[in-house]
Design brief:
Layout: H1 2-11, H2 13-33, E1 46-52, H3 58-74, E2 79-87, E3 90-97, H4 103-119, E4 126-129, E5 133-146, H5 153-169, E6 174-180, E7 185-191, H6 193-198, H7 203-213, E8 217-224, E9 227-233, H8 240-244, H9 258-261, E10 262-268, E11 273-277, E12 284-291, H10 296-310, E13 318-325, H11 326-356, H12 359-383, H13 389-402, H14 404-418, H15 425-453, H16 455-458, H17 462-487, H18 489-497, H19 509-527, H20 529-548, E14 562-565, H21 575-590, E15 595-603, E16 617-623, E17 631-633, E18 639-641, E19 644-645, H22 654-660, E20 664-666, H23 669-678, E21 689-690, H24 692-702, E22 708-713, H25 717-731, E23 737-742, E24 748-755, H26 757-762, H27 767-779, E25 781-788, E26 791-799, H28 807-811, E27 814-817, E28 844-846, E29 866-868, E30 887-890, E31 895-902, E32 906-909, E33 912-921, H29 928-942, E34 949-954, H30 955-985, H31 989-995, H32 997-1012, H33 1018-1051, H34 1058-1070, H35 1073-1091, H36 1098-1138
Parallel strand pairs: 7-26
Antiparallel strand pairs: 1-3, 1-4, 2-3, 2-32, 5-12, 5-13, 6-12, 7-10, 8-9, 11-15, 14-16, 14-21, 15-16, 17-20, 18-19, 22-33, 22-34, 23-33, 24-31, 25-26, 27-30, 28-29, 32-33
Length: 1140
């Protein structure tokens, strides 16, 4: 099949060229339409649920809402974890689905259960779905800055919610626009209990009056003059004077108004989050959440265009300042890789030109390289793979391999044409056809071998799969395109371009040099085979101690260009104090010259994607370009002191040495964070430094926002707190630990009202009545929501602050009761015919008014009008008893007021209570795997309380899963490659010889990784996997030429003795050294621009390329020496076993 395709391509080159051109146009269109991103979305498939029951404490919410809902979510198909964060008035549920679950399918499953879960709850709480966004949806954040100082925080918040939010939410691809900072204003009616009691009124009376005073009402419709009219009562008013004049009592002599019993004014609505910009004071910030699966760059470009359109609508002096913009990261990452790709293409073409010394032949590679790259974008576009750091990295890895087939075909065509000087047209076609048909199938197979070697990457799980699958896909697409082009376009181009005078390989200067250098080495290896093999074994053994000292990490930190500082402070902090500390912190950070802007946030933004309590600070630090950072002196090998040249260094050499090892270098990100932390040591704060995207991915994947974390499970919250504190003390002093912090499950102060049920019963009240009265008095009641332009304003009634802001004042809180407590006496009866209840107490009766009525009464004294008296008896008469003052008793007579510690937030995983310990490990200088091993030993030695268990998580959990996966996948892949090689060669010996090159390749990888101080991470493993395929391809090419030489000597009858065999192997190894070294040189030199690249994303791509470059260097040297020796042994064994 392949032979026929090659023959047809050689005989019909122009048809192949036209078809290839059409494919290239399709690839160009796909490239143009492929969306850009920084990195793939690494977050798990999640669905967010928000439960709201405002005013309810976390412990009650956890038992009545979080527990039943979490239990239902756990049973949902494909759900692997359910995290619930219960705080005051709200519960956030995060349902995390199995890897690979379709986001739309997951969302629909939760939506189907929403009604069933709501039915499990009591009356009051309400469940709702969160936005359709992934864990990294926070892609754009801005602050509203008023340079003129004319707008207060309420006006800025109104501007955000009425103008900006609606305009940005309508941008295609935006899931939600959230706000934090500033406040909504509300009309607050603060009731004074003294005048209220004096006028015989209750809080309920005030609430009813306020509710009746405002609000539109509809009165149906009428027809007049053959027209239809809607009738409405326009009661809406935000005129505070009108509200103050609203009557509450019913005394006709002097109506009691709201102004008589309460203070009516404007006040900020209660909030659970605040924001600060540049340490200049509180501001309003907006957060644009991008919908899952959208083209982030396209969405952000549309958002910024909309903001430009909105500029004229902003008040004078107000501007929108971006403080986090992921599009900058996307463009920097893509520029880093595209620049390296262009350099790769250039150097690979130069290498081919140098080796072949034939310009027309080089044109074959010039055409094939970009075409193979373009064709890779066609399936990328169809499968929705974005052009990001990883997908472009896959193409970068493949650049050197894409033209392997072409250069081998060209080289073999050159060699065959050399044997026919001045060939005729037909002779040239026959020579090219012979070269292509002879080399095409094995080269095609070797390219497929490279594809197969990457299968373990597709079998990774979790973040590793999501990060590196685009790389594996694009490399596979590019290699598949190269494999197809190697049997179609390459033969056609060889026929079209390989013509004219071709310098014989024996006369080419580079070939002569290579042969001259390699022949004595190969001769020595074949004449000293045991020594050669021992040298190879020694090389492999030398890499073992280096490999053991490499250390491990899940992934190197990606430099996102911005920092996220996430300190944690004490539980129960008030929002005003949190704002003060936040402003102090931001002012200190902004003072660093490397900082462009600072946006600090304490507490949560108003979105279900942010469950942060007030004790959690999130500060986005936007940094300036690196060329504007400070320089620091560094010690170079040619210095005697930092920045001072040694005495032996001549003056003329200083400039050159400065280029090799500069006396100054830019400040590193880690050093900057360390300097910032030194100036931010506020009492009670625990530090954590990370990156914006990384933090959200880590928190979604493991619930932990630091490199290492521990989940502590126990029977109750005090036991979890005790175990967590013990763990922090055990690991806090370990080397490499920046900070260790146990998030306390207790520490929030609660005022518990414990009802005295007997006292309540004596006063005719139930515990529920007391709860309702206290909710109104302390928490307040929103009695109306009124329109205010394009926004709305709440009207709230509550007790004035001076009567509810301390334990003593709460104990004296007046509670209206329907009757006095009289031990051993009948309950007083209400007189008939009056407007309300006449309360009698202590021998006193009051009343006023006229009227008729009958009634009986038993008590102390009777009277008409106002009077006192003593006596007993019954009577009937005519009169009216007017309403008297409601009887009130202090709260302390009805309940006990106790201050206790309780949970500020209750966290559960899969409906089990859990506590988190955050450990900020210096990942750049610390082996996380070794650190966790040492930490486990420390914790085991310290012991833990009975009934608690630990789960180590964070990056460590991901690292462990990756290592376990690799231990299975790598052997399976090697077995599959062995099977394919066996199918190709038809015997087992040659596949084993080919795979025998792998250990020699790993030698160089390990040495280079150790020299660069890179740890074993998923990125390094991907590079090692790629190396296995490239090393196997090199081995296949070597075996191919050795077989060709052996077969020629055998056909010519020259293979009679062992020495003849040695010479045949030597010829096969030496005479074809040019194509072998050319393929290796293209890979090594081609990967150089990526290995030494600087910029966003280079941290990851360098670690992928380093094992390849180091491995190819040693693999080439040892392959050229070891494979001929092993091949010689195998053929010699065949000669002896098959000899007659």
């Amino acid at each position: 099949m392949i032979d026929r395709i090659i023959r047809w391509s050689v005989l019909h080159p122009w048809v192949v060229l036209v078809l290839s051109l059409a494919a290239g146009v399709a690839g160009w269109r796909a490239l143009r339409d492929t969306p850009l991103d920084a990195i793939p979305d690494l977050s798990d498939t999640q669905v967010i649920l928000l439960g709201e029951w405002m005013g309810v404490a976390p412990d009650r919410l956890e038992s009545q809402v979080a527990r039943p809902v979490a239990s239902a979510l756990v049973a949902t198909p494909k759900v692997k974890a359910v995290r619930a964060y219960t705080m005051y008035g709200m519960v956030f549920f995060y349902a995390i689905f199995d890897d690979g679950t379709d986001a739309a399918w997951a969302r629909s499953r939760i939506q189907e259960q929403l009604g069933q879960m709501q039915a499990l709850l009591p009356v009051g709480p309400r469940l709702s779905l969160g936005p359709d966004a992934s864990g990294v949806g926070w892609a754009f954040q801005y602050a509203l800055v008023d340079d003129a100082g004319a707008q207060d925080l309420a006006a800025l918040r109104t501007l955000q919610e009425t103008t900006l939010r609606n305009a940005l939410a309508s941008v295609p691809g935006v899931a939600e626009v959230a706000a934090v900072g500033g406040f909504r204003r509300q009309v607050q009616i603060d009731v004074n209990p003294g005048p209220l009691a004096a006028h015989g009124l209750s809080l309920d009376d005030v609430a009813r009056a306020a509710q009746a005073a405002v609000g539109d009402q509809s009165a149906g419709l009428i027809e007049m003059s053959q027209r239809e009219y809607f009738v409405r009562i326009a009661g809406n008013t935000l005129d505070l004077d009108v509200l103050r004049r609203t009557p509450v009592g019913s005394n006709p002599a002097r109506p009691v108004t709201l102004g008589d019993v309460a203070t009516v004014g404007w006040a900020p609505q209660a909030r659970r989050g605040t924001a600060d910009w540049d340490g200049m004071g509180e501001t309003v910030s907006g957060i644009v959440v991008v919908r899952a699966g959208e083209n982030v760059l396209g969405v952000l470009d549309r958002v910024k265009a909309r903001l430009e359109e909105l500029k004229p609508a902003l008040p004078e002096g107000v501007r929108v300042v971006p403080v986090y913009d992921r599009s900058n990261l996307i463009r920097r990452a893509v520029e880093t890789l595209t620049g390296a790709l262009v350099e790769q293409l250039a150097v690979v073409i130069v290498v081919i030109l140098v080796f072949l010394a034939h310009l027309r032949s080089t044109l074959v590679a010039v055409v094939m390289l970009p075409l193979a790259v373009l064709l890779a974008f066609v399936p990328m576009r169809q499968l929705g793979v974005t052009a990001n750091l990883m997908s472009l990295g896959g193409i970068a890895l493949a650049i050197g391999d894409l033209v392997d087939a072409a250069v081998v075909l060209i080289d073999d065509a050159h060699r065959k044409l050399e044997r026919t000087p001045n060939p005729t047209r037909q002779q040239r076609i026959d020579a090219i056809l012979q070269a292509c048909r002879g080399m095409g199938p094995p080269i095609f197979f070797s390219l497929l071998l490279l594809v197969v070697s990457f299968l373990p990457v597709f079998a990774l799980q979790g973040q590793g799969r999501r990060l590196f699958e685009p790389l594996a896909m694009t490399k596979t697409f590019a290699m598949a395109a190269a494999a197809i082009l190697s049997i179609t376009l390459a033969p056609a181009l060889v026929r079209l371009f390989v013509r004219g005078h071709i310098v014989p390989e024996s006369q080419q200067w580079l070939s002569r040099v290579l042969i001259k250098l390699y022949r004595p080495m190969a001769w020595a290896a074949l004449h000293n085979p045991k020594t050669t093999l021992l040298m190879g074994v020694f090389a492999v053994l030398s890499a073992i101690p280096v490999a053991r000292g490499l250390g491990s990490e899940f992934m190197p930190a990606l430099d996102e260009g911005d920092l996220l500082y996430m300190p944690t402070t004490a539980n129960g902090i008030a929002i005003d104090e949190a704002q003060r500390l936040l402003q102090t912190q931001d002012r200190a950070i902004r003072a660093f010259p490397e900082v462009q802007s600072v946006l600090g946030k304490a507490g949560r933004a108003e979105t279900s994607t942010d469950p942060a309590p007030l004790s959690m600070i999130e500060t986005v630090i936007q940094l300036k370009p690196r060329d504007q950072w400070r320089k620091v002196a560094q010690q170079c090998w040619w210095h005697k002191d930092k920045g001072v040249a040694a005495d032996w260094v001549p003056a003329f050499a200083t400039a050159l040495l400065e280029r090799l090892c500069p006396s100054e270098r830019p400040l590193t990100l880690d050093e900057l964070a360390t300097q910032m932390q030194a100036g931010l040591d506020q009492a009670g704060w625990t530090h954590a430094w990370t990156k914006p995207i990384k933090a959200r991915i880590d928190m979604l994947a493991t619930g932990i926002r630091t490199p290492v974390g521990v989940k502590v499970y126990g029977k109750d919250l005090p036991a979890i707190d005790a175990a967590a504190g013990q763990l922090v003390r055990a690991v806090g002093k370990l080397p490499g630990t920046r900070s260790a912090f146990a998030e306390r499950n207790l520490g929030q102060y609660y005022v518990d009202i414990e009802p005295d049920r007997a006292a309540l019963a004596r006063h005719g009240l139930l515990a529920g009545d007391l709860g309702r009265l206290l909710a109104l008095a302390v928490g307040g009641q929103t009695v109306a929501t009124l329109p205010d332009g394009r926004s709305t304003v709440d009207v709230q009634v509550r007790l004035a602050k001076g009567f509810r802001d301390s334990r003593a004042e709460l104990e004296m809180l007046p509670i209206a009761v329907p009757r006095p407590a009289l031990a051993g006496a009948a309950n007083p009866a209400s007189p008939a015919g009056g407007d309300g209840m006449a309360a009698m107490s202590g021998g006193m009766g009051t009343g006023s008014g006229t009227g008729t009525g009958t009634g009986t009464g038993t008590g102390s004294g009777t009277g008409t009008g106002t009077g006192t008296g003593t006596g007993s008896g019954t009577g009937t008469g005519t009169g009216t008893a007017a309403p008297v003052a409601n009887l009130t008793v202090p709260l302390r007579d009805l309940a006990k007021v106790v201050v206790r510690e309780g949970p500020p937030m209750i966290k559960t995983e899969n409906a089990q209570p859990v506590g988190y310990v955050y450990i900020d490990v210096d990942a750049d200088r610390t082996d996380i795997g070794a650190w966790v091993a040492a930490a486990k030993h420390k914790v085991q030695a310290a012991g833990l309380p009975a009934g608690t268990r630990l789960e180590w998580t964070g990056q460590y959990e991901l690292l462990l899963a990756m290592q376990e996966r690799m231990q299975t996948l790598v052997p399976l892949t090697l077995g599959l490659m062995l099977l394919l090689l066996w199918l190709n060669f038809g015997n087992l010996a040659q596949p084993l010889i080919v795979l025998g090159t792998v250990p020699f390749a790993l030698v160089g990888s390990v040495w280079l990784l150790g020299w660069l101080d890179y740890r074993l991470s998923t990125a390094v493993w991907v590079g090692l996997i790629a190396l296995v395929g490239v090393a196997a391809e090199t081995g296949v090419v070597m075996i191919l030429y050795l077989d060709e030489s052996w077969q020629r000597w055998k056909d010519e009858g020259r293979l009679r003795t062992v020495e003849d065999l040695r010479m045949a192997v030597l010829e096969g190894a030496v005479q074809r050294v040019r194509p072998k070294l050319m393929t290796v040189a293209m890979n090594v030199v081609g990967l150089g621009p990526v290995l030494w690249a600087e910029g966003t994303g280079a941290e990851v791509t360098r670690r992928i390329c380093a094992p390849l470059v180091g491995g190819l260097v040693t693999s080439t040297f040892l392959t050229l020496e070891i494979i001929p020796v092993v091949y010689f042994y195998w053929r010699r064994w065949q000669m002896h076993t098959r000899a007659p």
